[in-house]
Amino acid sequence: MMTHTPATSYTGRLTTLMRAPLVQGLVAFASAEAATRVVRLAALLVVARAVAPETIGAAALALSLFELVRVLANAGIGQRLIVADDNALPALCRTAYRLFWLVCLATATVQLIVAAILALVFGMAEPAAMLAVLSLVYIAMPPGLVQIFLTMRANRMGACARIAATQNMTDSAMTLALVLIWPSAWAIVLPKLLAAPVWTVLARRSTVWQPATVAPAPLREFALFGPAILGTEILNALRMHGDKLVIGALLGTEMLGLYFFAFNAGLGITQSFIAACNIVVFPHLAKAGQAGGLREYRKAFATGLVMLTPVVAAQALLAPIYVPVVFGANWTDAAPLVALLSCAALPLFAGSLVGAKMRVAGRPQAEAMLTGAATVSAIAGLSIGAAAGLAGACIGFGLGLGAVLLPAAAISLLPRRPSLNSSTACFKGATS
């Protein structure tokens, strides 16, 4: 008779864990993000040496406005497809395809209006022209959006990760090439547009889909998800950018520069992981439905926490060592700020998973309310802490997030809230 030693048993459990779809999806996105960041770093080093700071500033303004406007395209349409009943899916896909075109064209129109205001009111012709050109990105999106959300619905997160990584690396490689040939702000902006068709082609190949002959689903099928998820995305954008406005107003541009660097160095990598967790966990929980329930949610929470915590600890503890070495001695003063802001990744991770659970449970409005409360609390904490300096602002930001998101996460892990187990029935009722 074969006996199993503790080491053999541990190895077997580890192998089983690594083969789980959830872990494979997280690993796929983490690997894709790592590869993307290597290419981005190479491009950034070349850009910093070839392009003047004021030129980078013009491109940064256009890209920042582009990212803010693009939030309007996240209207919850794809999330509705992920949690849809199989029988209702063909009709929902037909309506979703039309809605994707409508939302993207509307977002492009808003961006053109912002570009016009930038040129006519503020006299910034070049950033306005860049913003106008970037509105063409929205034309490339609708042909592949139904397919990419169907790929997520099928829990093929490795394919989604490869598509995202290919687009991002194409963007960075084009930036690198254009900066060498044409060192200008346009060399930083144009790759965003040129890489968009790459995403479209890969997304369409990820899942074969053609509009079925069934009648389109009524628009009310998307009424639950659309406004609530759009509100959540807008509130997240305000949280991500509002803190910079507050720091600049209260502490001045020099302190804003330090904070901006510390925020990106402390939360840049971990925010990418948090976004990946949300992308992977939401379809995973939606597919689990009644069969998985709270058990799968707890497993997802524990798995993500085990993967994230060592990274956060390493960033916080080693910041005084690696910040001056990697970024230069002139950034030494930012090391404590990097350590403090890196800790904010933990409540952000918790909030991301609570939000995914709420969406699966058919409660996106609750997610929007939670995001709003976290945004207000974080900005308030940052504003209060800023009275004690930049370190106080960073502490206040993290505490503000934690005060809202960590209790919400603790409550979501309790067995007395059967939201996930009722999600399938909720959407079956909505589509009948």
Average pLDDT, to the nearest integer? 80
Shape label? globular
Oligomer: single chain
> Per DSSP, what share of the residues sits in E-state strands of 2 or more residues?
under 5%
Radius of gyration: 22 Å
Residue stretches low in confidence (pLDDT < 50, at least 5 long) are: 417-432
Q: Profile the largest sheet.
A: none
Span between termini:
55 Å
Task: Please count the helical segments.
Answer: 18
| Helix/strand structural class | mainly alpha
Beta strands, count: 0
Q: Helix content range of the residues, please?
A: over 70%
Pattern of helices and strands? HHHHHHHHHHHHHHHHHH
Quick summary of this structure?
81% of the residues lie in helices and 0% in strands. It is mostly helical and 432 residues long. The longest helix is centred in the C-terminal third of the chain and has 75 residues.
What keywords describe this structure?
single chain; 432 residues; mainly alpha; 81% helix; globular
Structure description:
It is built from 18 helices and no strands. The protein starts with 5 loop residues before the first helix and ends with a helix. Helix 3 packs antiparallel against helix 5. The longest helix is centred in the last third of the chain and has 75 residues. The C terminus is likely disordered. By secondary structure, the chain is an all-alpha fold.
